[in-house]
Amino acid sequence: DFVDKMGLFTVQTKCDSKDTYLTRPDLGRMLSDEGAKVVAEKCEKNPTVQIYVSDGLSSAAVAANVGDVLPAIEQGLKSYGIKVGTPFFVKYGRVGVMDQVSEITGADVTCVLIGERPGLITANSMSAYIAYKATVGMPEARRTVVSNIHAEGTVPAEAGAHIAEIIKKILEAKASGTDLKL
Hints:
alpha/beta
């Protein structure tokens, strides 16, 4: 329901079920052929920032937080004069699918809002992974992460503003992950 409320279109990874997602992490890092085609057709080409949402390990976390986080990021980026591409939703997605999304869209910065492991503190914990000029096969160290986004952790609206600020710094530095010197 939250996907429809947010006005996001949905694509899927190469996983056909939650079981496949859990047992074949490699398939959760790649869009299905149809999903890649839809992203190429529906998303703005070469945006400064491409944001998308993925259920990851906790769709409950995404449903609980995206309604506050995504608008806060978009508003923050707009206030900085930074253009955002077409947001969408990836079903059965892992963090690594952002690399393919980046390549398809040509985004300078790609940001995924994704549900994290339920049971660490709460099933409602979400993270944002952000990368500058992400490419398939890049090292994990090139990703910047904001984690523990939930009502008892980093409050969603505040997290959105913080993520927008981090994206601004990534664009200024033309670097993310361990290459980013804050």
